[in-house]
Design brief:
Residues 1-28 are annotated as: Disordered. It comes from Alcanivorax xiamenensis. With 164 residues, this protein is mainly β. It has one helix at 114-117, and strands spanning 25-26, 35-38, 61-62, 69-87, 98-103, 109-111, 118-124, 127-145, 155-163. The protein contains one helix and nine strands. It is globular, with a radius of gyration of 17 Å. The structure holds calcium ion (CA).
């Protein structure tokens, strides 16, 4: 027996689409349902979405080798319009020190290209920000260390992802 299609006016009890948030919100924040994981030093991953952007000693996540990452999985998919990463190493472009990745399903990640994907980007002064050209549906955000040697010197103190 097939499920009936659109019966009239039932109150939409199924849970699948809660709709957009009332206003753009930092959906990475633990208080807003973001869950942090890392490929290394998992126990410190939560320092990147605790709402504290300051890079105090010991209040950041660090990897160990090139390719290590910390990621935030949101409580559901959101339309992402901007993000900010508080990281001590920045450069003329994001390559060289860190790379950034978005995932629609929380499992498959696609690299983020600042030059193509941002209207306005700030890189330097302890942070990297991007206002995205095209808002994108995402369920997770990943910051990955690309520094080839001494990768542990890259410290991420906070990740903010603005979604609605
Ligand atoms: Ca923090």
């Amino acid at each position: 027996m097939a499920l009936a299609s659109c019966g009239g006016g039932g109150g939409g009890g199924s849970s699948s689409d809660p709709g957009p948030l009332p206003e753009p919100t930092n959906v990475a924040l633990a208080d807003n349902g973001g869950v942090a994981n890392a490929s290394y030093l998992e126990e410190t991953a939560g320092l990147v979405n605790d709402g504290d952007t300051q890079p105090y000693d010991g209040y950041y996540w660090q990897g160990n080798v090139q390719g290590d990452y910390v990621q935030i999985t949101f409580d559901r998919a959101y339309t992402i319009s901007e993000f900010a990463v508080y990281v001590n190493f920045t450069g003329n472009d994001n390559a060289g020190y860190t790379s950034y990745w978005l995932s629609e399903d929380g499992e498959t990640f696609e690299p983020f290209a600042f030059t193509n994907d941002c209207n306005a980007a700030t890189i330097g002064g302890g942070m990297i920000t991007c206002e995205m050209k095209e808002p994108r549906i995402a369920r997770a955000f990943r910051a990955q260390v690309e520094m080839e040697s001494n990768a542990h010197n890259v410290h991420v103190s906070e990740i903010e992802v603005i979604g609605q």
